[in-house]
Amino acid sequence: MEQYYGTGRRKASVARVFLRPGEGRITVNGKDFQIYFRGILRAVYAMQAFRETGTLGRYDAIITVTGGGPGGQADAIKLGIARALIQANPDYRAALKPKGLLTRDAREVERKKFGLKKARRAPQFSKR
């Protein structure tokens, strides 16, 4: 049985995506995709790679995702699916690259500095 793998990362989330030829069933951490991301609009964009390549419903996706929140997890899944699709067929690269689906979003949370309230927010200044 052939299987394709892609890793996606975003913020603190890491998604491992396994694609197998099938009917389009997508499971995330053992749950159905719709149930796992119930009501999260950004999760719809996680399927963008399937839509751009016209492969929606041709692959079953088994996804394990850890860390971060729902938004970061959805974006990590999006990158993982795109990378796995390129493994399945390198010709999909031409459709995915211009849409930015193969680019890892490197933005991370800036660390808090001592003497400050947050990463950059200083305590309120008091003249007296």
Automatic annotation (TrEMBL):
Tagged with keyword Ubl conjugation: no
Gene name as annotated: rpsI
One Gene Ontology term of the molecular function aspect: structural constituent of ribosome
Gene Ontology CC annotation, any one: cytosolic small ribosomal subunit
Pfam families in UniProt: Ribosomal_S9
Key words, A-Z: Ribonucleoprotein, Ribosomal protein
Protein name in the entry: Small ribosomal subunit protein uS9
Family the entry assigns: Belongs to the universal ribosomal protein uS9 family.
Any one Gene Ontology BP term: translation
Keyword Zinc: no
